[in-house]
Write the structure tokens for this entry.
Amino acid sequence: MSTITTVDARNQFSDILNRAAYGREHVVLTRRGKEIAALIPMEHLQILEQVLAKLEDDLDLAEALRVLDDEGDEVLEWEEVARDL
């Protein structure tokens, strides 16, 4: 992974784009010494998005199972719920 300033990236855009797209290099763009963005191959982005979707699904499933476990402890009758409303 290499780092380049946004000014240099602007001046070398086609070279940086080729390094990411064909050389499969990750290029981090900085401004005033702070990392602000990255240029990565499209294939890597697709993999990252798949992994993120899987992690989100796993978190959703864990939360659903937790809620189901919590709901199993207390059962309310409809009349009681209607009265409370």
